[in-house]
Amino acid sequence: MATDTLKKTSGGGGLRRLLLDNGALTALIVLVIAMSALSGDFLTADNLLNVGVQAAVTAILAFGVTFVIVAAGIDLSVGSVAALSATVLAWTAAEGGVPVPVAVLLAVATGIACGLVNGFLVSYGKLPPFIATLAMLSVGRGLSLVISQGSPIPFPDSVSHLGDTLGGWLPVPVLVMVVMGLITAFVLGRTYIGRSMYAIGGNEEAARLSGLRVKRQKLAIYAFSGLFAAAAGIVLASRLSSAQPQAAQGYELDAIAAVVIGGASLAGGTGKASGTLIGALILAVLRNGLNLLSVSAFWQQVVIGVVIALAVLLDTVRRKAGAAPAPAGASGGGKGKQAVTYLIAAVVAVAVAGATSLLHGGSDSGAKQKVGLSLSTLNNPFFVQIRAGAEAEAEKLGVDLTVTDAQNDASQQANQVQNFTSEGLSSVIVNPVDSDAAGPSVRSANKADIPVVAVDRGVNKADTAALVASDNVEGGELGAKALAEKLGGKGTIVVLQGQAGTSASRERGAGFAAGLKKYPGIKVVAKQPADFDRTKGLDVMTNLLQAHPGIKGVFAENDEMALGAIKALGAKAGKSVQVVGFDGTPDGLKAVQDGTLYASVAQQPRQLGRIAVDNAVRAAEGKKTEETVKVPVKVVTERNVAGFDG
Amino acid sequence: MSDRVESDELLRIEGIRKTFPGVVALDGVDFDLRRGEVHVLLGENGAGKSTLIKTLSGAHTPDAGRILVGGEEVRINGAQDSERLGIATIYQEFNLVPDLTVAENIFLGRQPRRLGMIDRKRMDADAAVLLERVGVDVSPRTRVRELGIARLQMVEIAKALSLDARVLIMDEPTAVLTSEEVEKLFAIVRRLRADGVGIVFITHHLEEIAALGDRVTVIRDGASVGQVPASTPEEELVRLMVGRSIEQQYPRERPDGTGEALLTVEGLTRDGVFHDIGFEVRAGEVVGIAGLVGAGRTEVVRAVFGADPYDRGSVRVGGTPLRGHDVGAAMAAGIGLVPEDRKGQGLVLDASVEENLGLVTLRSASRAGLVDLRGQHTAAARIAGQLGVRMAGLGQHVRTLSGGNQQKVVIGKWLLADTKVLILDEPTRGIDVGAKVEIYQLINELTAAGAAVLMISSDLPEVLGMSDRVLVMAQGRIAGELAAAEATQDAVMALAVSTPQNDGTEADGGH
């Protein structure tokens, strides 16, 4: 009896059934329809290939994580392992002089080795997978910084072709993603290890008592995840032509989200390659579509979070409807459940459409010039100031300005610049996360004849109409001079460094060191990174004070860290210990006024933004622009702070 | 005492009915309890005793029928309700927090407070009074983790008393105790009875009824089938309880002669758990292992199968020694284990029937890492048909199968692997009578085909009905071996509660 009903239902309505069986696919289709309705630029062949490229890295990572999640584990280390593998490849090829194929093998071996360590800790060390892989997340990231000494390493050209297109149109990352997806489907569906993953994830003890060698298989499962992470890292680095020690940060969470959106359960036992691919595509479509629609960078994160929750909710409801073994005659109840599924799908559609149309400010401006601005981050007042200056200038000149936030992720920035290009903007302003890594995406804008203006940092190996920047090296030197003279040329100081691997940190540090050469009485007793972050500045300074209670001065490579250091110094700040910051942010200038911050090497971020937009508009109109526009830096102290306005 | 029946009535249950999806657990149970009596609930496993006490403790709400406490009809919708009505239950698994002290456990959630802080001094003093009343010599400041099972039970009783319980329900309290401890428990129960507490006592040990009980209510297949005085002869109690002849229920076809020894275990010991276990199982033979819960039966068979390690001794299959703690080796030698916890250890619940059936053979069905999916499918279809697994299709998730069909799937995966020695740990627990008989038939077919079966069961009639020989375990040792002809409930129970090898209290230290 029950067999009959099963057969009957599987007979008719193929497409409808496919959609009902796969909540994530429904969500993807709803999203694509919503995006195409809202933006004419979305449903073009070029843009869809863009989406594919942008999904590739997350998808490949997520395929690896699928193995682990199906076996009821978790792998938080994939992002770090990807960065480490790419770094190993670039370093052995560039500095070690190893032939490129061998370097590729070494990178893959690195990924597998990291996976094996994870597997060993989980299987034999009996660590919870969350903790074991969290440890690897930290170790992997640390090792890639150690190997690269914090700086990006150029990727060998022969491997960088992995980031190119095949036959002029098919992007290789998409091809790699599809191949890895097929491998994943094959492993999960047909192989002994794959079938074991489902059994282990479903009930580990039952699997063990049925003779599966659970421990050994876990080793292999995590090794698979490491292998896929290495592949993702190589694709990521080849897209950017540069191996970045800070690449793929936080990607593990995207990968896990993709797997779960694709219908896998974190409790293990379920999950499919196709689902994971759909999950990764949903994330990529969202990011791409929201870029095209010029949704504000902050709201994008909100929308992405809401859609992730809704997509999984849709699948959960669908599953509940399907889990009850439909007895004959219960079709009425089944229909009710289907109705709920459709209802949720409708809610997702309306929510996405509503949110995006609400949030993107009028794309109906016909004749206006359109300019895109990709900022490295908006998590820092300096860049918020750049945006403010740019927006004010855009308003004045009557151009349409779209601002995106790359969240300090070079690959996300590449996606955003690519989206600007395929949208056919009149010009693009880029504030590179990394000068090397911005190269490939700016080159493709060059190809499309879209002028690019770089702001704050330059772009390597690509043409820019103008570089609008303050001189970081000069700023560093000025900062050294200000601090040294205030201390009367002698005393011990510490340096709070910015995020390892960023050009701002390197240049300011180099300038400071050069400036300090003239003052041999000043001794730097410690240099520690605090990642341009106020909280970290506070923590690092507190630690340094324990070790060096007698210091007289602090140089922080930005104001945020300087303000953190001032908090740590307490009453000493501005009295017995002098602090010099960098950037001249509003908070920094206020501290200068209050006397806690002795000086800030002020850039003029509003000016940077203003001049960048100005140059972008001139370039789009075909007018001549200066190759380099230097916006002066200036040491602001209590004496001149009143007259200064960034 | 009996002339004050009406006013003394603490609890009355009339026509209680409770169904779960696909199962009628209780179907018309009547029961009453008076002040100062021990009322024994008697019934087979699965007769409905546990469901009944769970309706009294508020874990289940009945579908029909009335519950009266002190003459008034009540609804018990949760633990709070039953606590308020003065009903306390002591389950077989204790509800104690191992890392809190005895006093903290007794007053958990109701600790006496002063100025918002827990008043430890008063709590310990109150606990000491309760412990004194129970007659157990434990400091209120001892951590529960350090106590043995018997004392844990006393703490549970003290906790029940602290709640001012007038009705105390005890679910098989003697199952885990030694005979000496049982005597102590009886003394406490008698004292409580004298204090006027009404006690519902569940036990499988018929001799305990005469020793302790006042009245007996017999439950069979979810209905109360009789209320008799505790002095009723044991044969009469068994007849009421089973209600049918054991011969029909256990269709064991005993072979004429037995074959060669397939499984030989010698001197198997895991320190502190089981000691010097030795037995053999021959081709075509069913060997039953009887004993109380906690006697070490499951631990022994898991060690034989390689699921857990052992310290000394040997396991041989057909004369070849097996490596210890190596499931793979045991399987390769032809041993299979149907574990006690079917859902937790036997099945991947959210996988299909086909996948579960193919689990054991997954490895042998793989060539160069690739699984022969078609072969697996054919084999699964064949064995499912042979076992008569009732399902919607091979793709159905085993979670949605009935208990009996789930058990067939667990057994089926071992049949596919050509198992020579099948170990069954509580193979029919929680399975309805019809499916039980099908599983017994399966055991017959296995032994007829020359396999050996080692079966653990707490269901005494089952062990007696199905085994060619019965090994009885007590306190981690084999207390004795009985041939089918001489194995009776009394004989088995006598061995099960005995203290093997007369080294008494220091059973652990002897070897």
UniProtKB/TrEMBL annotation, chain A:
GO cellular component, one term: plasma membrane
CDD domains: PBP1_ribose_binding (cd06323), TM_PBP1_transp_AraH_like (cd06579)
Membrane topology, as annotated: Multi-pass membrane protein
Pfam families in alphabetical order: BPD_transp_2, Peripla_BP_4
Compartments, record wording: Cell membrane
SUPFAM superfamilies: Periplasmic binding protein-like I (SSF53822)
Domain of life: Bacteria
Domain (Periplasmic binding protein) ranges: 371-624
Keywords: Cell membrane, Membrane, Signal, Transmembrane, Transmembrane helix
Family classification: Belongs to the bacterial solute-binding protein 2 family.
Protein's recorded name: Transporter
Native source organism of the sequence: Streptomyces griseoviridis
TrEMBL record, chain B:
UniProt xrefs under InterPro entries: AAA+_ATPase (IPR003593), ABC_carbohydrate_import_ATPase (IPR050107), ABC_transporter-like_ATP-bd (IPR003439), ABC_transporter-like_CS (IPR017871), P-loop_NTPase (IPR027417)
Pfam families: ABC_tran (PF00005)
Compartments where found: Cell membrane
Record flagged with keyword Repeat: yes
Keyword Cell membrane: yes
Name of the gene: rbsA2
Domain of life the protein comes from: Bacteria
Organism for this UniProt entry: Streptomyces griseoviridis
GO annotation, cellular component aspect: plasma membrane
One annotated GO molecular function: ATP binding
The name this protein goes by in its record: Ribose import ATP-binding protein RbsA 2
Bilayer topology: Peripheral membrane protein
Domain ABC transporter per the UniProt entry, residue ranges: 11-246, 253-500
SMART domains reported in the protein's UniProt record: AAA
Predominant location category: membrane
UniProt keyword terms in alphabetical order: ATP-binding, Cell membrane, Membrane, Nucleotide-binding, Repeat, Translocase, Transport
